[in-house]
Design a protein that fits this description.
Order of helices and strands: EEEEHHEEEEHEEEHHH
Radius of gyration: 21 Å
Number of strands: 11
Bound molecules: zinc ion
Structural class: alpha/beta
Strand order of the largest sheet: 1-2-4-3
Number of helices: 6
Shape: flat
CATH topology of the largest domain: Zincin-like
Length: 238
């Protein structure tokens, strides 16, 4: 694999640094050179119109260096899911604790998430556990809201999407970002209500929003604002 020609490095405490490679792309639709830090994917995208030379796009990026660095500084430090780390799942805080010789796998107990087995697999196992626990919770909420609108739904799945928190297909299948595992419960509920409302209206019309407000039964501005403010936070878990 060719190393990236350009990258941004931001310093974290001590020896820790994070590298954000730059991806250049030339597109028919682009009307000007545009720099977009895609925090979820940890890359910086630079798109430019076909009639612009790549060297010009590079020069543009050079000129905007400080601006990009400033954007990257806003990103919260990554929260590494490891032994001893604390995470909040559906409004309750847990400490992750590794018990290498336990036989049970991964489980909640009081304020802990206990994980058996080797430390090197802990990260993957905790993530899988959170995904399956989140899926259980989301499934109960889907049933609840779907009953309110009187609609059937298809399969429910969790994905690692970088662009959407949830989606609803025309066949009624619903999918959600597993990163909602780190969001407060009122936000998870909102996303579920939003996607279930799409079972009634597969658009974002006035009618659609009325369905969302009706079934969510709370102020929808709060969870929407929370998501805008905390998107990078949800993507900071590694
Ligand atoms: Zn929608």
């Amino acid at each position: 694999m060719k190393p990236y020609e350009y990258s941004f490095v931001i310093k974290r405490g001590g020896e820790n640094v994070e590298v954000f490679p730059v991806e250049f792309s030339c597109s028919l639709r682009a009307k000007s050179i545009k720099i977009t830090p895609v925090l979820a994917k940890k890359v910086i995208k630079v798109s430019y119109p076909i009639y612009v030379l790549r060297s010009k796009a590079v020069a543009f990026l050079e000129a905007q260096k400080d601006w990009v660095a400033k954007q990257l500084q806003k990103i919260p430090e990554p929260v590494v899911i490891k032994d001893g780390a604390k995470i909040t799942f559906l409004d309750k805080e847990y400490k992750i604790s590794n018990i290498p010789n336990a036989r049970r796998g991964v489980w909640f107990e009081d304020d802990y998430i206990f994980v058996s087995g080797d430390k090197e697999f802990l990260n993957r196992r905790v993530k899988d556990f959170l995904k399956s626990e989140l899926k259980k919770y989301i499934s109960t909420r889907v049933r609840y809201y779907a009953k309110k609108v009187g609609k059937d739904f298809g399969k429910i799945s969790l994905k690692d999407t970088s662009s959407r928190w949830g989606s609803c297909a025309s066949n009624g299948n619903l999918s959600f970002s597993w990163r909602l595992a780190f969001a407060p419960q009122f936000v998870v509920d909102y996303i579920v209500a939003h996607e279930v409302a799409h079972l009634v209206e597969l658009n974002h019309s006035y009618k659609f929003w009325n369905v969302v407000r009706d079934i969510y039964a709370k102020d929808i501005d709060e969870p929407q604002k929370w998501l805008v403010r905390n998107a990078t936070f949800l993507y900071s878990f590694d």
